[in-house]
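S1.2 Input.
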Amino acid sequence: MAIFKHPGKRIPRCAPLLLLSCLLALLLPACANEGNESDTESNRSTHASTESNTTATIDPNGFLSDKTDFVLQSKTTSLGLAVNGNRLSITSLLTESGIEKVGNPADLALPSSYGNQARPFDWHYLGYRGYDDGAGGIGYCFCFQNESPKALYELYVVARPAMAGPFEFFGYLRNEDTDPIVFRPNHYVSFAFHSTKTPTAMTFHKQSGIAEGWPIYSGQKFEGSGIYRTLLENGVTATAHTTVHQDWNASGSIPMIYLDYETNGIYAALEWTHGTLTATGNEEGNTLLAVGLAETANFKTRIPAGTTFYLPSVYLGVYDGDVDVGSNLFKHWFLNYKAPANMTEDPCEPLTQQDMQIGFRVASYGIQQIKWDYGWWSNEIVSAPWRTNEGLLEVRNQDYLGVMRGEDCATLSLFAYKANKADVKLALYVLLKDTKLDRAGVPTSVGQYGHPEWFSHINITGVANSADLGNEDCVNFYKNYLGSFFEKNHITTWRSDFEPICRDSDKDNRHYANGSDVSYWCTVGFGELVDHLSESLEGFRYESCSSGGSMKDFFTMTKASVINIDDSADFMSAHMNFYDSSYCIPAAQLQLPVNALTYTPGSPYYAGIGDYLYGLRCTLTGAVMLSNWGGTSAEDISHWPYHIAEVYNQKMKPLIKYGDLYHILPRPDGIHWDGLQYIDADTDREIKGLVMLWKPTDTEGAQKTVFLRGLKEDTLYELTFEDRPAQNCRKTGYDLMKNGLGVTIEGESGSEMIWITEAN
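S1.3 Output.
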């Protein structure tokens, strides 16, 4: 069983043995120093599971039993734990202002059962040890033992004292028996909260295809509101269930729940691609929150003798204020500790991107990356637009060969080299698919070199079956196949699609054939693959397309620099989806791939709202991806030097990465005003914030008062209107937050950007 590096900030490429060191640090009994912070350049945490032939073992004698009460501290909150017999309980969870969210001590769930008959484990507490991941995370490891079958479970509870943010829970179950264990974890993490006030649970659909409630240019529409609020009265349940299902809007929710108590709140999230969070209210004022894998009760898998099963991280955090406050705390924490390192270390991130249409000269317009999309590997169309040889890494499409010839390049390697010299990166769309070619060195199921066991029965485009990354030989093949290709051709960004993580497979390997554990082990394999590429290729980036946001989850966000917000290419759909998803995922990681024709009046794809600038501004709120199905137009280019190179790259990007985001007006609906505010009041940069407003119709009239957030009350601010300088003004932070800012947009529709600086 291959080592699986749990996601976190990338380990330094100069230290490839660090992964094994992390593994041994977790599993050997030596106690870590408690309370130490690391000054290492890389501050993402790293977890690991074991190989089947590893010599590392858990020594029960290495655990301590000198105390039963424990306290972990983030920068603003604290968590109390207690051991009582063979149970571990949460005794306290305090917000920054000291509001207690736990009533009576609540037992933390332990892995539930084993065997085909679902027999319960009989866990016995062995002791604890301190934990320091060397990257800012400190806490405790609590160890439990089951006698028959012989198994050890290590539960890690980790805090990061340098930042406000959540506590993290994850575990490892090691089979120390002589036979495999059929493992049924059920709800492997659970929490109980108490309050005299009934909370409202907020959950968020992924909306991977199109935003709910909006008819895109084609007229297609999915009913729904995107954001769901459930008052958790006695017996009422709210669920966030996530999958990697490819079909439009079929992948469930972002795996996160907020419990909103109006003046304070709680949030929990699962760092995995397939799982369920369930919050239930009861008559005693308690709210129970439980987390499990896949469909929870049905999940089962095999743990071979001598190997370890990883139980994915669950985040738990509290905050004072409303959901926007909690959201900002969480997203800053995630971007700093969990997102790929380049997102904070590279000032160019998130890269502005465009479809490959006008060559390397896009760099002069502020575009930092060009994208080769589906089909560059074949001229042969099976059924439009799907082409043969989906897993092949050879340029055979005449259109793309023409692009290369246009740059006087005979090879992809030369083309990418020239692009890099021109300060333009190349993102390449690569599918993990069966080429069906009878030849060596390619992923194929046929002929003398064929490996049919490497591929699932899932065939999304009707051309080729998807790779099954539960098969370790398949993963190892792709490590070399993709790694060699990217290195040889100077490609820095892999862009995936069509379920690189299979939802199902008829093959039997690490997972059962057609089992409930398929996506779990394919997630493990995918993590192994991306980690290998990240650690061995300088400057490597991964982007997730995957039918828009079907992989809009926190495991993927630890691997992907950016992920598509949805797959509609409609600016209003992307705008609405961004509003929803940005409560959970950092704005810098949410890419808005939009066809400019949807905001170009007169186009057959025009969404029917606003002018060109109205739609363009909707695409600038997160990570920018520009597209035009009719080919780049003169109108497109006329806007880019200012709005992309100057406004977005220089002014907006730092706010999007490091500022707080407030949803200052209701969700966009194509009728009423909507708006967002970025603010970084403590920054040394001149621009402290930005208000972005959109008026789609005149239904509410020409005037709107918006209440700003996150300002310093006693500071005098300069408000500079991008389009309507006559409305420029100076107001104190107190006035802007208490009394609001009046804005006038005349006409049927319009948009505005208002820059916030401190007045001289």
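S1.4 Remarks. The longest strand covers residues 308-320.
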